[in-house]
Amino acid sequence: MSLENLSPTDRQHRTFREDLLDWYHEHKRSMPWRETNDPYRIWVSEIMLQQTRVDTVRDYYPRFLEAFPTVEALAEAERDEVLKYWEGLGFYARARHLHEAAQTVVEEHDGTVPDTMETIRDLKGIGPYTAAAVLSIAYERPHAVLDGNVTRVLSRVFAVDEDATTTAAQNALRDLANDLIDDEQPGDFNQAMMELGALVCTPSTPLCDRCPLQDVCRAHEAGTEEDYPITPESDPVPHHDIAVGLVFDDDHLLIQRRPDEGLLGGLWEFPGGKQEDAESLETACRRELKEELGIDVSIDDHFYTLSHAYSHFKITLHAFRCHISSGTPEAREEQPFKWVHVSELDDYAFPRANRRLIEELERRQTEPSLFD
Ligand code: SF4
Questions:
Q1: Active site residue 46
Q2: What's residue 263's pLDDT?
Q3: Mean pLDDT for the stretch of residues 15-28
Q4: Mean pLDDT value across residues 314-338
Q5: What is the mean pLDDT of residues 101-126?
């Protein structure tokens, strides 16, 4: 079906509003964020769930809310503390934006999460998906969500034969979801669509014989379920070699905070950067430390190498033990640095690849040679 013709039949309307909701009420998984109507708690869960597995969020969500039980508590917290509770969840801009938006809610909305599309969209980090999720689940406003799961379900039921990732397709699918939504239970409707995509209408081998939409699904009728959604060929995932310095001064290590904006913004890390063409890893390490901190270092030895995958690229991270041969570290480009003992590293929020280096440092802490 083309985007212009996306229009549900009466039977499809009924099936989405009755059979899908019945299925959801019977099969929904128990989640801590499904046991509250508190808009702040629902908002936190929706931010955490973006691009993150439910099982991972189950661990982080109660810890985060224990530390920041109200929007006021989050607004008053230091950003480093918020990032520490987010450490390991990835996509750290989410935490920075959530923190900033909590301050806006307290300062401009008397601590009440806005309940209209216009006002909630003004908050930092709240896009159309999160706005619709919070408004429908917390306030029962009829705004349909469109995420990867919903896109897949709708693309299959309506056999959408165009690239589902384009803005035009996403807008058309959102309009379609808004047409289908149950006005009396919009929160449950949205959660039912996402739950169906997660549990039944899975990317491969969907479980059509357990699906409440089976009788109105065009892809199922044609046996072409896995042909949808249509997506463009993805480019190969880039790979980078990263050289970092574990710069020791007796039993203290040099760490540096990343710039606020951009990937892993505001987290601490061991200084270093990408290897350039025709450059050895050791040279890359020395060059990066000179550029970032203004110091010359001597490399003592190779410490550890690990691989890590981010959402859009992969890295191999090579860590070298170093000591300063000349110069004194200077904070450049608003990136403060600190000297910390290995035992204090847990007090700071690090990206996951750096955290694995820390685990290796802690493991070897008892080796007499570590601080030589
Ligand atoms: S019938 Fe199959 S393909 Fe269609 S929505 Fe249900 S699980 Fe997905």
A1: yes
A2: 79
A3: 96
A4: 90
A5: 96
Catalytic residue among 46, 87, 269, 288: 46
- Predicted local distance difference test score (pLDDT) of residue 159: 95
Strands 252-257 and 239-249: antiparallel
Structure tokens at 158: 């309506």
What would the CATH number be for the domain defined by 3-227?
Answer: 1.10.340.30
Q: How far apart are CA 25 and CA 288, in angstroms?
A: 55
DSSP 3-state assignment of 311? Answer: coil
From its phi and psi, is residue 335 left (phi > 0), alpha (psi between -120 and 50) or beta? beta
Model confidence at 369, pLDDT cuts 50, 70, 90, reads low
Retrieve residue 247's tokens. 């710069």
pTM score, two decimals?
Answer: 0.78
Of 154, 155, 176, 200, best ligand 1 pocket probe by most atoms within 8 Å of the beta carbon: 200
Domain 239-363 adopts which CATH fold? Answer: Nucleoside Triphosphate Pyrophosphohydrolase (3.90.79)
Ligand 1 atom nearest to CA at 200: 7
Which residues are registered as beta bridge partners of 161?
A: none
Task: Give the residue among 64, 45, 57, 83 at the shortest CA–CA distance from 352.
Answer: 83
Q: 339 by DSSP, 3-state: which?
A: strand
